[in-house]
Design goal:
Strand order of the largest sheet: 6-7-8-5-1-4-3-2-9
Number of helices: 10
Bound molecules: fe (ii) ion
Order of helices and strands: HEHEEEHEHEEEEEHEEEHEHHHEEEH
Number of domains: 2
Number of strands: 17
Distance between the termini: 39 Å
Shape: globular
């Protein structure tokens, strides 16, 4: 994330100044093979590793980067570890939404004082590259926000990780940074978690979508978006809503066995190039029918892209008062219908593609029906 641009007044009232997303850490069944997928299909570069070869006995972790997106893939080596238990219950999924801060001790104290449940007391870790301070608080489900203070550290990732210098050649696909990370929570819990982000982390409610905005013939969901002071961190929170059939959020909760991260949206330089390349590499996307494009320009007005190009790649468009955006969603990237990715290119718009919800959710329901979960 780019630093600064936070004005002084804002900084003085923000008890939890955040610099942006530090990394997203997944607990997975086989980190070595997942790392290969993220390198080959998504073009991430493997930059650091920790595991038995570096003296860590209970786990192996791979750190992958593309511009400002940093993912960590961790797998258990000891079957009794918390990592193995997490994977048994949830399958591959996000454990840490880690946030880059200037002061991990103060971030922990300020949030715990306001009611956060501690996960990790502030801890200073060091090696030959300097030191970091990390701390952590719990959020929905088994998910954790780690605070990472790294201004006195020059190593490849965190102390204990070794740089990987013989990583395979990769071709990036134009990923820039994480735009937002969405959580699915249980029925009736959305407002509780919105309040958590407001009271405990000082976030503001940005947007609300109710079941009238987000319902199809069959199922529905509700969503609220919270954001921190400088807007670098945006967390939409979804909960299922009553519908004729099973909500996609309920399907997620059933298969993840609880609340968790539903999707990660990544901003790209040029969505046409990124999506064309990802398709060539075998990434599967949700499909919207061609009729979506018949009247899309009536809805969104003039755009710079050729509508035929968008149609060919099945990319969606939406507009708000500040501009438009282009977006597309992958199918779940595990065997359980849980986490997926959004590829987004903002051309001014600050919103989340409300105009596409109906078309998208009908597409998700077609997939649910194929899985026998609608
Ligand atoms: Fe999204």
């Amino acid at each position: 994330m780019e630093t600064a641009l936070v004005n002084e007044i804002e900084t003085s009232v923000d008890f939890l100044p955040l610099n942006g997303t530090d990394h997203v850490e997944f607990y997975v069944g086989n980190a070595k093979q997942s790392a290969y997928y993220y390198q080959m299909a998504w073009g991430y570069k493997l930059v650091a590793y920790s595991g038995p070869e570096t003296g860590v006995r209970d786990r192996a972790s791979y750190v992958l980067e593309q511009n400002k997106v940093r993912l960590v893939l961790t797998t258990a080596i000891d079957p009794t570890s918390e990592i193995a238990q997490h994977h048994l219950k949830h399958g591959d999924g996000v454990k840490f939404l880690s946030i880059w801060v200037d002061d991990a001790t103060k971030s922990f104290e300020e949030t715990v004082k306001r009611g956060a449940i501690p996960y990790l007391e502030p801890m200073r870790i060091e090696d030959e590259y300097g030191y970091v301070v990390v701390s952590g608080i719990r959020t929905y489900g088994d998910t954790v926000h780690k605070f990472v203070e790294r201004s006195s550290y020059n190593g490849p990732f965190l102390p204990g990780f070794k740089a990987v210098d013989n990583a395979m050649e990769v071709t990036p696909v134009g990923l820039k940074y994480i735009d937002h990370c969405v959580g699915n929570v249980e029925l009736g819990k959305m407002d509780e978690w919105v309040k958590f982000y407001e009271d405990v982390m000082g976030f503001k409610l940005l947007l609300t979508f109710d079941d009238k905005d987000i319902s199809t013939e069959y199922s529905a969901l509700m969503s609220k978006v919270v954001s921190n002071g400088n807007g670098y961190i945006k967390f939409p929170i979804n909960e299922p809503a009553e519908g004729k059939k099973k909500s996609q959020i309920e399907e997620y909760l059933d298969f993840y066995h609880g609340a968790g991260v539903q999707h990660i949206a990544i901003e790209v330089h040029n969505i046409l190039e990124t999506v064309a390349e990802l398709r060539r590499r075998g990434i599967e996307f949700l499909y919207v029918p061609e009729t979506y494009y018949d009247d899309v320009l009536d809805r969104v007005g003039e755009i710079d892209e050729d509508i035929e190009d968008l149609k060919k790649l099945n990319i969606l468009v939406d507009r708000d008062e500040s501009g438009y955006l282009l977006q597309i969603f992958t199918k779940p990237v595990e065997d359980r219908p849980t986490l997926f990715y959004e590829i987004i290119q903002r051309r001014g718009a600050q919103s989340f593609g409300k105009g596409n919800f109906k078309a998208l959710f009908e597409s998700i329901e077609r997939e649910q029906a194929i899985r026998g979960n609608l």
